[in-house]
Automatic annotation (TrEMBL):
All residue ranges annotated as the CMP/dCMP-type deaminase domain in the record: 15-137
Record-listed E.C. numbers: 3.5.4.26, 1.1.1.193
Cofactor comment text: Binds 1 zinc ion.
One BP annotation, GO: riboflavin biosynthetic process
Amino acids binding substrate: 198, 218, 309
Protein name: Riboflavin biosynthesis protein RibD
Record NCBIfam families: eubact_ribD, ribD_Cterm
Record Pfam families: dCMP_cyt_deam_1 (PF00383), RibD_C (PF01872)
Protein function: Converts 2,5-diamino-6-(ribosylamino)-4(3h)-pyrimidinone 5'-phosphate into 5-amino-6-(ribosylamino)-2,4(1h,3h)-pyrimidinedione 5'-phosphate.
Residues engaged in binding Zn(2+): 64, 89, 98
Reactions catalysed: 2,5-diamino-6-hydroxy-4-(5-phosphoribosylamino)-pyrimidine + H2O + H(+) = 5-amino-6-(5-phospho-D-ribosylamino)uracil + NH4(+); 5-amino-6-(5-phospho-D-ribitylamino)uracil + NADP(+) = 5-amino-6-(5-phospho-D-ribosylamino)uracil + NADPH + H(+)
Active site: 66
GO molecular function per UniProt: 5-amino-6-(5-phosphoribosylamino)uracil reductase activity; diaminohydroxyphosphoribosylaminopyrimidine deaminase activity; NADP binding; zinc ion binding
Length: 375
């Protein structure tokens, strides 16, 4: 059976199949931001209508979800159905292929949401399962799975991470006070929500201006989430970030990667490296770093999901380069007034929202969140 035929056969999967696949998707999301460079996969093993094993990709990307679920199911996996959010791997990496583990366990049927675009897999996992007598259905909850694995798909197909831009604006559409001074726009519920979003990303990016103006920690400061804080990425063309600021002084706790121009001081680089930061050099044009090159480096380092939380200059540069895949817009209830600065350096927000689709809105206390995704 071809992948297309299998997808068609699974597209009208039973309500029972869909329920278990949605559970697998929910389990997989537990790993977002915590499994890179591997995808955050979920797996549920069911026998006679009873869940006998559950798993999700573990921190650092191993063990894989299927292996975790099989470990819990033990002998009950024989004759069972496995629901998995991404095609089981078929290649030998740092661990044996998940497809082989499924075959060895005697699983009778696999319901897989989508094929893995990784050329080392790309249908071969499904084929290996079928060749060993396992029934394979592909395509159930495929749209949700593609969104859940957007980072993995982006890194494999475009060599860059999936980019989420977060902005906060006042009731009158401003992002800061006159003179680029920081303004408190949203409340505690919105702030805590942002911490949760950070924890679901592999890295968070800001420009030097934000670091100098706000001295941000760029961490997920909620109980149980701090250790899941993303890698901090700072765009600093001339390597001017002060060593006393949080992104450098706490680098032993949360990694910081600094991107600089090829022309930046080698002495400054040596000092930052001695403090524990990593420095990457890319080309620049009139002091502005080449974002495409930054994205390729991040992808090469294994980053699959990048959150951009810089000021208007960085945000506008990502919009202008058409690098935004997902957009989180927080709207506060109070106006800033005359002299406040816009969120995109004078660029209209519809320059961004016009390329994206509104996916939903949510009230966060007195604030409102709008979520947009690439059409």
């Amino acid at each position: 059976m071809s992948e297309a035929e299998a997808a068609n056969s699974a597209s009208s999967g039973s309500a029972v199949d869909e329920r278990f696949m949605r559970l697998a998707l929910s389990l997989g999301r537990r790993g977002l931001g915590n499994t890179w460079p591997n995808p955050a996969v979920g797996c549920v093993i069911v026998k006679d209508g009873v869940i006998v094993g559950r798993g999700w990709t573990q921190p650092g990307g191993r063990p894989h979800a299927e292996v975790e679920a099989l470990r819990r199911a033990k002998r009950l996996a024989k004759g069972a159905t496995a629901y998995v959010t991404l095609e089981p791997c078929s290649h030998e990496g740092k661990t044996p292929p998940c497809a082989d583990a499924i075959i060895k366990a005697g699983v009778a049927r696999v319901v897989s949401a989508i094929e893995d675009p990784n050329p080392e897999v790309a249908g071969q996992g499904h084929a290996r399962l079928r060749d060993n007598g396992i029934v394979v259905d592909v395509g159930l909850c495929a749209d949700e799975a593609r969104r859940a694995h957007a980072g993995h798909i982006a890194r494999i197909t475009t060599s860059r991470p999936h980019v989420t831009l977060k902005l906060a604006v006042s009731a009158d559409g401003k992002a800061g006070l006159a003179g680029r001074k920081q303004a408190v726009i949203t409340g505690d519920e919105a702030r805590n929500h942002v911490f949760n979003i950070r924890a679901q990303h592999d890295a968070i990016l800001v420009g030097l201006g934000t670091v100098l103006a706000d001295n941000p920690q760029l961490t997920a400061r909620l109980p149980g989430l701090y250790e899941r804080s993303p890698v901090r990425v700072v765009l600093d063309a001339q390597l001017r970030v002060p060593l006393s600021l949080s992104v450098i002084s706490t680098v032993r706790d949360v990694p910081t990667w600094v991107f600089a121009s090829q022309k930046a001081s080698p002495v400054a680089e040596e000092i930052l490296v001695s403090k524990g930061a990593r420095v990457f050099r890319v080309d620049d044009t009139q002091g502005r770093l080449d974002l495409d090159e930054v994205m390729k480096v991040l992808g090469g380092e294994g980053i699959t999901r990048l959150m951009v939380e810089g000021g208007p200059t960085v945000a506008a540069s990502f919009v202008a380069a058409d690098l935004v895949d997902e957009f989180v817009l927080l709207k506060g209830p109070k106006a800033i007034g005359e002299g406040g600065i816009g969120p995109l350096e004078g660029m209209a927000l519809d320059r961004l929202t016009g390329k994206l689709e509104l996916d939903g809105t949510e009230a966060l206390g007195a604030d409102t969140l709008e979520h947009y995704v690439r059409c």
